[in-house]
Each structure stands twice: as structure tokens, then as C-alpha cells.
Amino acid sequence: MAIKAKVSLAFFLFFLLSLLCSNLVISKEERDPEIKTCKHQCRQQLQYSEEDKNVCMEECDEYHRMKKEREKRKEQDQDEDENENPYVFKSKDFDTRIDTEDGRVLVLNKFNDKSKLLRNIENYGLAVLEVKGHAFVSPHHFDSEVIIFNVKGKAIIGLVMEDKTERFNLESGDIMRVPAGTPMYLVNRDENEKLFIAALHMPPLSASAPVNLEAFFEPGGRNPESVLTAFSSKVLQAALKTPKEKLERFFDYQRRERIFKISKEDVHGLAPKRSIWPFGGQFKGPFNIFTNRPSFSNQYGSLFEVGPSEEKSGLDELNLMLTLANITKGCMSTIYYNTNANKIAFVTEGEGDFEMACPHLKEKKSSSTSYHKISGRLKAGMVFVVPAGHPFVTMASKKNNLVIVCFEVNAERNKKLAFAGKRNIVSALDKRAKEVAYEYPAEKVDEIFERDEEFFFPYEEGEEEERADA
Questions:
Q1: Domain boundaries, the chain
Q2: How many CB atoms lie within 10 A of CB 212?
Q3: How many CA atoms lie within 13 Å of 272's alpha carbon, on the beta-carbon side?
Q4: Among residues 352, 357, 355, 356, which one has the least CA distance to residue 395?
Q5: Which letter, b or e, does each residue of 317-335 get, where b requires 16 or more Cβ atoms within 10 Å of its Cβ?
Q6: Which are the contacts of 153, defined by CB distance < 8 A and separation ≥ 6?
Q7: Contact in structure between 319 and 205 (CB atoms under 8 Å)
Q8: Among the residues of 95-216, which ranges form H helices?
Q9: What count of Cα atoms within 13 Å lies in the side-chain half-sphere of residue 225?
Q10: Which segments constitute the Cupin type-1 domain (predicted)?
């Protein structure tokens, strides 16, 4: 009798479970008409055996499961976008302004469009120029000051002022200032290597309005369009003293794009000629960042700097410093901050990580946290911004050196103050203040913050996780 009762109970539980599963399937189908239609079509296939129909309906369930996973991932991505790091810019944050077979121009979206936290640099813009071998960038000008940094490759730059053109060769590491409104053209003088240039746009010295990074192209006709085509036919005829028909033929003749390949003879013909004038021309020539000794250098990395105090650099009057950090693979910079300068950092080589302390973003889950850790994975082509006063650190991966070109705005009287290394602000505190602040003997505090190396240190990825598990 007991055995019969157990069998009846087991049968009842099996029936209840089957009914529950059936209801779950029905409710799932009711929630998603697509899966209901899919299974209905499986059942209506006359050529299918019962086994085939069951396999077909299982595939409908699998499709439904995968669809739900995709929707969940999409929702997670959207949540990440909404809570996106306001200080890090990825490839999607660049707008392609010019795109031809022989080169392209990428422009970073306006800083203040990303976040109000970047309003201190809202008047600045960053552009990247890539030009293939022996290609020519048509003459153009900007209504902004342009600071060119030649990241990679060999170029010729021609600058026009009133009645003459001055030409200069550009090498990797060269800095060149192009005053606002100056017509210029560029040539990749290497036949095989791509030319790669980063350009910071900033308001003219007499203005403070945001830059728009739109180029004004002087030559051209309908494609590319010349700025002259915006004027009426009567105005052009009077200004150029040329009949309408001749002007139309002239503008219609130019059909090349804004960046296009030229012959080897043309490249050689555009090369700068040696000047015999002892005082130079109207423009300051390029200044190579590697001309200066590195500000910090050891086996773990090096930092080169060119600032507004160096007249030859062309950065005088601009309150701007340009730096290049080369962090050895598996190493890191110290944790430091700029006292005055806002750093616009462009990763040109390698990959690594970035961390920064920010008081403006609070952790949602904790009301006790005073600072938010901003972090991001870095790779070539990315940009990150570090406002003045914000402590930060950059780390290179174990695979490659991490090379970062930085435009530091508001650089006059700026200091780099470190938290660790041979010279750091904690060790520099007077003994009594140190002991009062840390409630720890001054000698013990110095043991923690002092070290023989300065500015660049070895770094082991995963140390934080290992310590957390210990």
C-alpha cells in the first residue's frame, strides 16, 4: 500500500511538472509571437516526420534564446554608453571629414559635447591626418591656430604669406605652428610610408570662440569645391577680370579630390630649396621634440617636453606645452597631476591602461566615496583628457611600449607633482605636518612613498587583483 502511494505521488509530481513546463512554453510563446509563428510553421510542414518537427521546434527555442541574449547584451551596451567615461574618446568619437583613396582627415567631436566636465577645453579641437605615399593635400587654411605634430613619416609643408610660399621638410617628432588664416599644403615625400599627423586647433590669439575645424580650400572647382564658388558670377568676373565662360571652364576643369597622389617629379619639385637669406623667412621652421633632452628618463620610460618658454618651438605666446611619453612595455608612469595644464592625450602606439581620480563623479552605490576612479583601456588612435589637478597614471601592456603625444593647454607656470618616486609631494611635506596628517611616523611614511626611480616605474598587471584575493 505504501509503495502504491509513493508511485501515485511520483506520478502526480511528474504530471504537475509537465503541466508547469507546458504553461511556461505557452507563456513564452504568448510573450513572443515570433516563436509562436516559428513553431506553427514547423507543425505545418507536411513533408516533416514527427522527429523533424520536434527538431524544428527545438531550433525555434534556440533562436529565441539567442535573440534574448542579443537583446540583453544590447541593453547592457546601452547602459554602458549612458554611463560612459567622459574623459576617454574612442574611434566612434571621431568624424571623418575627408576620405579619399590617398588619405583621410579624422576630427574628434567637440570636447564639451562629450561632457560639461570638459568645458575648460571647449575652445580646442583635435584632428588626425593620414596621407599615403607621394600624396598631396590641396592648399587650404583654417580660422584657428594649428599646432602640427608629425607623428610618423616624412612630409613637405608649404606655407603662404602674401606674395611668397615658404617650404619646410617635416620629420617624425617635428612640431610646426601654422598661424590662423595661413594657406598651407602638405606632401608625403616618402613613396611607401604613410604620413601620420596630429593637429591641435586653438582660437587665434585675439579670439576665444570655439574652433570649427572646417578647412577653407583655395584651389579646386566643383570637386573638390573651392571657396570661390560661393561667390556670385558677377563678383568673380569683376574680381578676377575674367569672362564668365572662361571662369566656368576653369572651375569645371578641376576634378581631383582634396587628397590625391602626385608624380615623383612633382614631389621633388616641391622640395624646399636651401635659403641663402641669413635671417630666415616669415615663418618659424619645425622644431623637433627630440632635440631636447628628456625631462625624465630611465629604463622604464622617457618623457620629452617642449614648452612656451622655447621661442624656437613656435609655442611661445600660445600657453601650450607639447609632450611625448614613451612608457616601456610592462611599466608605468608615477601617479601625478598637472597644477595648471589640461592634458589632451593622443595614443599613437601600443596599448595599456589609464586611471584617474575624479571628484566630480560619485559612485552611485556608495554615498561615502569622495572620489570616482576613472579608468579605461588604451590603444593606438584613442584620446583621453586629464583636467588640471586630477591625479592620474598610465600603464603600458606587457606586449608593447605605450607612446602618448600630449597637448597641454594652459601650460605656463605648470608643474608636474608626483605622489611616488625620488621627488614626491608626500615626502616633501615637513615632518610635523606629515605625522599629523598620516598619524604615522614620518620615516615610515617616507618608506612607503619614496623610491630610487623617478617618474617611471616597473608595473605588474594583475597586482591589484592578487592583493585583493590575499
A1: 88-220+256-269, 292-416
A2: 13
A3: 20
A4: 352
A5: ebbbbbbbbbbbbbbbbbb
A6: 131, 172, 188, 190, 193, 194, 195, 196, 197
A7: no
A8: 111-114
A9: 7
A10: 87-248, 287-446
DSSP 3-state of 26 = helix
Strands, E assignment, 335-434:
336-338, 342-349, 351-358, 372-379, 383-386, 392-396, 402-409, 416-418
Block residue for cell numbers 596599448: 351
> Which superfamily does CATH assign the domain made up of 292-416 to?
Jelly Rolls (2.60.120.10)
Rounded CA gap, 115 and 121, in Å? 11
pLDDT-wise least confident of 190-194, 395-399, 466-470: 466-470
Question: What backbone torsions phi and psi does residue 396 show, to the nearest 5 degrees?
Answer: -90, 145
* Structure confidence at residue 163 (pLDDT): 80
CATH class label, 88-220+256-269: mainly beta
Angstrom distance (rounded) from CA 226 to CA 396? 45
Alpha-carbon separation of residue 351 from 91, 112, 291, 432 (angstroms): 14, 26, 26, 42
Distance CA 273, CA 169 (A): 10
Torsion of Cα atoms, 216 then 218 then 220 then 225, to 10°? 30
Question: Residue 467: pLDDT band by 50, 70, 90 thresholds?
Answer: very low
Q: Cα torsion at 339, 342, 348, 350 (round to 10°)?
A: 50
Q: Tens of pLDDT along 81-111?
A: 434 688 999 989 999 999 999 999 999 988 8
